[in-house]
Here is the input.
Amino acid sequence: MAKGTSVVVAMSGGVDSSVAAALLVEQGYDVTGVMLRLWSEPGKEESNRCCTPDAMAGARRVAAKLGIPFYALNSQDLFHNVVVQSFMDGYRNGITPNPCILCNQHIRWGFMYETARELGAEFMATGHYAQINPRPDGSVELHRGLDPDKDQSYVMSVLPQEKLRHTLFPVGGMAKPEVREHARRFGLTVADRADSQDLCFLAGQDYRGFLARHVPEVTQPGKIVNADGRYVGEHQGLAFYTIGQRKGLGIAAPRPLYVLEKNLATNELVVGDETDLGRNSLTAGGMNWISGTAPTEPFDAEVKIRYRAALAPAVVTSQGNDQITVHFKNSMRDITVGQRVVIYNGEAVLGGGTIQSSFNTIGEPA
Here is the structure.
């Protein structure tokens, strides 16, 4: 099917998307490279990880080397209004948002995907480390990337069945060193370019400085109290702390203290012992089930509560297509409202949603 099939490749100027494009050209696809122009703080355009002038020039060079058309799509306003605004609003509301989830959902597989389809492309491809496995009935499954250190199936869990059927992940079945070897084989100058880790719109800086400039109200100092309300110190702004955090609290105490809660109403940071930290259950909403339909009965699964978290055994119960309750086999230290919970069955991603609450249930999950 590859020969002549039209595919738009989301290019970033990095090695993964560049090799994805090169492999598709080699396989006979009719490839077009597209790069998104994303919002940057005024004066920091040179440092925005995803679309600096240098990255744009690098992507153009790769496209020229491969002999494919290359276009830039302006999504600056949409990116700011959806991704950056939600990031700021999340901290205003005392939660820890995940902007990469929203970017993939609304920018890449929203604006970019729809544009690609309108232009007649059958598929959109990216350099993400995830895999799509076809099923006999024409549907597809989302699987983890082959390289466990690079696996990005967690963030791909936002994609619905319809979009996954028109998505390609050419490097998802490779380890990172193999991708770099392909880049050298194709003669791409990005073969040894370092990976980027930070949020693109932070321009290489710490998120604290960004919030101080744009959401100063969340950086106001306040009291640190224990679970009984007793004053134990001062915090520098609730946005600068996460549930489960131990280091950097600035408290002299005879035993380690951990962040248990952020009280937005009183601007207080609640701390306590490690034994007070764990929760064994959560609720989540906004579920996306990869199959398109929620399971009707409780089921055993492995669950991630953040991108770099280890898989944890749990029982998952759906309440309709949109809501779930997860009961973990063991207590979890750092369930964080606003982060994404993703459900796995072996290598397959079953679905994911946004964590809304955490709590303790008595006894073992059913």
Remarks:
- The first strand starts at residue 6 and ends at 10.
- The CA atoms of residues 133 and 342 lie 18 Å apart.
- The domain at 6-202 is CATH 3.40.50.620 (Rossmann fold).
